[in-house]
Amino acid sequence: MTRLLGRLGGWCARHGRIVLVLWLVAAAALMGGSLVFAAPTSNDASIPGTDAQRAHDLMKTGFGPGYAAGGTVQFVVYSADGPLTEDARKRAVEQAVDRLRTMPHVVQVDSPYRVGGIASNLQIGLIGIRMEGHDGNKIAQLTQSLSKAADPARAAGLEVVPADSSTPADKEIKTGPSEIIGVLCALLVLVFAFGTLVAALIPIFTALVSVASGLGVIGLLGWVVDMPKQAGIMATMIGLGVGIDYALFLLSRHRRLLARGVPVVESVRRTVSSSGGAVVFAGGTVIIALSALMLAGFPLLATLGWVTGISVVAAVLTSVTLVPALLGLLGHRVNALKVPFLKGADASGDGWAGLGSWVARRPWRVLFASVLVLGALAAPALALKLGPLDEGYGTQGSESRRAYELMATGFGPGANGPLIVVAELPSKVADSGDPIVDHVTRAVDDVEGAAHVSEPKVNTSGRSVLLQVVTDYAPSDARAAEVVRDIRDIALPGVQVHVGGEVAGLTDAGDRMAERTPLVIGVVVLLSALLLLLAFRAPIVAIKAAVMNLVSLGAAFGALALVFSIGVGSGLVGMDPPAGSSYVQAIFFSVPIESYVPLMLFAVLFGLSMDYEVFLLTAVRQAYQRHRGNARSVAQGLGSTGRVITSAALIMVAVFVAFIAYPDPLVKTFGVGLAVAIAVDATIIRGFLVPATMVLLGRLNWWCPRWLDRILPNLSVEGHEEDETPALPRPEPVKAGV
């Protein structure tokens, strides 16, 4: 692989203009095509094989329009000045209802002036709209057009807002200033790292090209696969981080070679043959970790995983082709436009080498202190609170948040997440007056936590009955999930009770995640360790790397628990507190974390953490090949990569922190978790814990059983330090304990 990458890098350096034009044309074509032929995004958050999915399927069998996904829209009407039953207000609302009945795809409109349509305070009412024949993926646009039809009520001084009834896949995350902020912060770090403006712009440019290409592919794939609306933002977040980092590692190596007098094209060839191999393997670990999410049994999560992997593939490809092309075109001008008083990343790494030597002299004390600090950072993870994240935590002032608060005030917190109960009957019934239907209704009504049960509705076949249940609890309350389970446990002869709706779906998602998490973690750790084994032919190093990455994950989950579950600073990251909160409550309040977020974070963080492990081990291995001194090679490896890894980590942290400014709570969660994990990984783990353990292990770091050494392919990810003393022949494998 070293020779292959070297030839590729040399060719790209010699044909820089061709490579540059090809990438620009490809990025423009892909991005332009995805914009012109915009594919629909999917709102399908179904989980095959779950009870909620079975209830959803039964809802579509003869219950009439509006019972399929996206078939119902609700508007909350609020009168701040008096009751909705006052004549003038009632006329205005009824006029709005009449206009809604004339809208396309609307088959039924329920007026607030029906039984249960107006709250007990008479100031809050609910308009229910059932539709058919519409595009379920465009429910947001349809809701906006329906909202305009309610203008007569607004003209009478009433507030009319659409109630949010979406699933996690419905949340459309609009672009904002976070990408720009992240790129500017990354540029600032690169300027300090390299000391020249031209060098700093290369990683930014290549990352933007890779992100544009990746997003273009993702957009076009929306025509053939269900594409969640979060896909673009996740791909952008990860693509920017790894794209800039990979280019940074290559550029740093190239500038060091130029400083030693190596010709430009030869320097590029050597850079890609050695550091390029590290980039390929680092990207491979990220892709493996993300691909393992397909084993989670949650289609939405699986799609987010492999879609994000597309952005990583694009970052790797631009790093080993576009970066060499730009370096070949620029030549020595890569050091142009120097910034005064900045030495840049090619400056001496004596400080980091000194740290490595300091660690090597006291490995046990460093190991103990590092474990103690990491344990303290991970301890809050025990308080991690998982659960649905309802619109009560949405952006203050948004329509969905306003509708949520009005619904909770007028009809109780459970009205924001009603349960849909569908019971399969043992025999056909004529209508809802049948005794078995009455038994089902009373059994559901007797469940603790069920505040209101609607009138039963029997489907056309007479074999299923549908009930809508409003609980005493908000959708984010864990007790709402208990009500779901209790209803499902109802035992009536021949009757099968299924529960659907948002709360039930997220409850099933949480159960599925808990069931599949050990499998996903095991596969990710095993495959990543195997990839490292192929790269370095050192089983102990591979196992140790996997363990170290799990340690950094503990710190990330500890930070998530501290900020969101415990509530220390949740208000400071932009989460809006519940209405009526005091000043202290506005800063410190608990926010649940969606059940699938930890697994997604695990996959992303495990892959990203492995990046730095690969780059550090590559440098240590190269040093060990030269002089066989373990402690010395650790110090030299840390010295040659410490400054670059720190710069790369700062860039990732800056990008992820910028995304915390997004109003979407899911993006905030990822921003906090990723930023903390990368910061901890690049400092405590790579700067102290990994060097200390490598010093203590000694020659065992590179031990490999003879039988394993014979069967492993020689991929030579680390290559040779061709600019240094020639590498010694690879030593015979040593025995364990020697």
TrEMBL record:
Q: How does it sit in the membrane?
A: Multi-pass membrane protein
Q: Which SUPFAM superfamilies match?
A: Multidrug efflux transporter AcrB transmembrane domain
Q: Name one Pfam family in it.
A: MMPL
Name of protein: MMPL family transporter
Q: Which GO terms describe its cellular component?
A: plasma membrane
The subcellular location is: Cell membrane
Xref: InterPro entries: MMPL_dom, Mycobact_MmpL, SSD
